[in-house]
């Protein structure tokens, strides 16, 4: 240790980051998606690379360019993301699940385009629950692997936001949860963010506000990473 230059506090660490939003197909031309842009996840990758980490980045439909200098993987669906994350888990010191994963997928994917004259005036979709990737990664991680989840909540108050976050981190079994409030206009496509970082006991580690890049650096600095002080 002692070889890391200033600004290279993550030197030698391997960080696996998922970002963006998954898309669940309905037929060959349609999908169910979400409003995640991938910006905060890309900012985390950029920040980690700037701090000297080796970043593996799994992107699901990004609306921004992928991070430069990362090993890039690209997925569409929640199940593809799950398979990719499980395959890459073993090589990571830190895993950050910034992706917005579809909670449900259509129970059937039509082989051809769904047609109005066949479906009629009311089309009912049946959705089935997707596996919880973060919970699965957390349940099978190595002792010194640090796992970070994200939660965007539409809470009415700060207290409600913290309560939702505390319940969620307990349910997921990860080490940290990056919590933020979203609404119809805030959170997704903007260049700034306001987050609260919770630890596994539900306590606030830090709060950060600013550009998504500065929030990313704040989050990374706050993680207690066993090997941060060692040279790899
Ligand atoms: N997540 C995941 N697999 C899923 C759903 C979510 O890995 N099938 C991850 C997300 O990437 C995020 C964290 O879990 O890091 C929290 O996602 P969130 O949608 O807030 O939690 P859910 O458990 O899906 O609960 P809900 O959407 O009902 O609030
Ligand atoms: Ca969800």
Secondary-structure map with pairings?
Elements: E1 14-20, E2 24-27, E3 30-32, H1 39-50, E4 54-60, E5 71-75, H2 78-88, E6 94-97, E7 104-106, H3 116-119, E8 127-129, H4 133-139, E9 146-153, H5 158-172, E10 176-181, E11 192-199, E12 204-211, H6 212-222
Parallel strand pairs: 1-4, 1-6, 4-5, 6-9, 9-10
Antiparallel strand pairs: 2-3, 7-8, 10-11, 11-12
The structure holds cytidine-5'-triphosphate and calcium ion.
Structure description:
- With 232 residues, the chain is α/β, with parallel strands linked by helices.
- Helices cover 26% and strands 28% of the residues.
- It is built from six helices and twelve strands.
- The strands form three sheets. The protein has an eight-stranded mixed beta sheet, sandwiched between helices. A two-stranded antiparallel sheet has the order 2-3.
- Helix 1 (39-50) crosses helix 6.
- The N and C termini lie close together (8 Å).
- The site of cytidine-5'-triphosphate has 13 residues, from helix 4 and strand 9.
- Cytidine-5'-triphosphate binds next to helix 4 and strand 9.
């Amino acid at each position: 240790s002692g070889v890391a230059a200033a600004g290279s506090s993550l030197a030698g660490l391997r960080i696996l980051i998922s970002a963006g939003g998954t898309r669940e197909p309905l037929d060959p031309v349609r999908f169910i998606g979400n409003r995640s842009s991938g910006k905060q996840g890309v900012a985390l990758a950029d920040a980690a690379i700037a701090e000297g980490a080796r970043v593996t980045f799994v992107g699901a439909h990004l609306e921004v360019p992928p991070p430069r200098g990362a090993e890039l993987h690209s997925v569409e669906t929640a199940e593809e993301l799950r398979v990719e994350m499980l395959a890459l888990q073993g090589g990571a010191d830190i895993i950050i699940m910034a992706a917005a994963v579809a909670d449900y997928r259509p129970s059937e994917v039509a082989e051809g385009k769904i047609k109005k004259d066949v479906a009629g005036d009311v089309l009912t979709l049946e959705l089935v629950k997707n596996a919880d990737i973060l919970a699965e990664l957390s349940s099978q991680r190595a002792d010194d692997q640090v796992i970070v989840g994200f939660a965007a909540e539409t809470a009415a108050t700060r207290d409600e936001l913290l309560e939702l976050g505390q319940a969620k981190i307990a349910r997921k079994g990860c080490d940290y949860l990056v919590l933020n409030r979203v609404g119809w206009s805030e959170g997704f496509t903007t260049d700034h963010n306001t987050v609260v970082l919770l630890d596994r006991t539900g306590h606030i580690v830090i709060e950060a506000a600013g550009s998504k890049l500065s929030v990313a650096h704040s989050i990374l600095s706050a993680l207690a990473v066993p090997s941060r002080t060692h040279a790899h």
